[in-house]
Description:
The chain is built from five helices and seven strands. The protein has 160 residues and is α+β, with helices and mostly antiparallel strands. Strands 1, 2, 3, 4, 5, 6 and 7 form a seven-stranded antiparallel beta sheet that branches. The radius of gyration is 16 Å and the shape is globular.
Amino acid sequence: MTALLDDDAQERFDRLRAEHFPPERNHLAAHVTLFHALPGEQVDAVRADLAAAADRDAFDVAVTGLRFLGRGVAYTLESAELAAVRRRLATTWEPWLTPQDRQRHAPHVTVQNKVDPAVARDLHGRLLAGFTPWTVRARGLGLWRYLGGPWAPVDDHPFR
């Protein structure tokens, strides 16, 4: 499950991902993961919970910095509203959450991964040198199905 970003932000992150992500591993658009794995047999309940969570106004998300991932680079994000949406869903879905989804959530957009650490360090330095914080808009919530590499969209739940 992901947070959906405004079109300008999506295009910017997609462009960076296309430029810096290994093409053979770049199976999906840039994204903000909120949950990694939810039970497929609960898809109707998940959809209903997402529709309820999306019944709110869109909100701003701050792009606050860059994170070196060891073999990649991600933009860090901060938003009290995004944290609150995720926290409410995590409480509702607590029995279903995997250990990964029970961990502290640190929202980000990965624009490079699975590369040599020296390549990642170089990109991190270059992006950091020109970095200025900016704000993007969260426009909704997305539900996806994993297909063993690529992901297929299941539902979009736009905010008001």
